[in-house]
Amino acid sequence: MKVAWIGLGNMGTPMAANLVRAGHQVVGFDLVEGARARAAGLGVIVATGAAQAVADAEVVFTMLPAGRFVRSALLDPGGVLDHLAPGSVVVDSSTIDIATARELHEQVTARGFRFLDAPVSGGVFGAEAGKLTFMVGGSDETLALVADVIDAMAGRVFHAGGPGSGQSAKLANNMMLAINTAGLAEGAVLAQRLGLDARTFYDIATVSSGDSWPLRNWYPVPGVVETAAVNRDFDGGFAVTLMSKDLGLALQAGRETATDLPLAEQVMGQLASLIELGWGGKDTASLVKLVDGSLGP
Ligand code: NAD
Q1: 225-281: per-residue pLDDT in tens?
Q2: Phi and psi at residue 240, in whole multiples of 5°?
Q3: What is the CATH number of the domain that holds 279?
Q4: Ligand 1, CB within 6 Å, residue ranges
Q5: Is the domain of 82 the same as that of 188?
Q6: Residue limits of the 3-hydroxyisobutyrate dehydrogenase-like NAD-binding domain (predicted)?
Q7: Last residue of a domain, one of 102, 130, 161
Q8: How many domains, in total, are found in the chain?
Q9: What number does the ligand 1 atom closest to the CA of 95 have?
């Protein structure tokens, strides 16, 4: 298919590159020159602006930082919708607030196009490996039209439901991840201070009821899980700022549905402390530093 790609950042570039590898023609645009150059090196045809990128496209993907960027790229005068052929499909794979995702469904379809909210899980490694989990909100028919394209970037594709359901699944999932990671930090420090060997406790917990995805992948004591960011001074991985963004969107969804989320609120405060201490770019498992007190009072 002829694909346009808006937003060639950490996620967008490897995702677009996988589409090129799968044989799709991909024309992309990013505001940042360096991002455009990197994508060009991976076979993406770089356009001079969003308008040029979408001129021939049958499907347009947006992979942008937040809802207001997506709204502006699509709906602003002279933006994507003003240059897209009628009937084309717009897929937003950014993580954005549910209200904006639903509004975009309405506005985009009202103008004669099709729309899916299709956020992803799996991070930059998943994007590079073409193994992202896609959580899709929108109609069956629209998903069927772009299923082959999405498959080239995906390990699993879930049709979560109607408009906004992809974002709903993503935000509820990441809220649980944040809370589980905070719980893991407390469990790991307590086990250590009780004199347990970290590897032994890890082996016990992974086959007991304290098991969790962050336990198995992010255990925050060096030398236990090879891939865990703790072994690299928490560099790389799932940045605190990104988790804070996702948790903020989940808390917003909580307010909009009159749902009390005290645990999420608490972890949000811990993430804010890490950001204040200059740890915003570090992996979220660095929450352990607040529990063991190694970042100071
Ligand atoms: P990023 O900041 O690396 O990339 C975003 C890109 O969008 C930037 O290169 C920026 O220049 C570009 N951009 C902004 N406005 C634009 C516009 N109007 N036109 C063209 N380009 C524009 O961010 P990322 O890590 O690639 O994340 C993108 C989205 O994916 C976010 O919503 C994020 O929450 C979500 N996400 C990220 C990860 C991850 O691990 N990084 C994982 C899952 C989901």
Answers
A1: 998 999 999 998 899 999 999 999 999 999 999 999 999 999 999 999 999 999 999
A2: -55, -40
A3: 1.10.1040.10
A4: 6-12, 29-32, 35, 50, 63-65, 69, 73, 94-95, 120, 123-124, 242, 245
A5: no
A6: 164-290
A7: 161
A8: 2
A9: 32
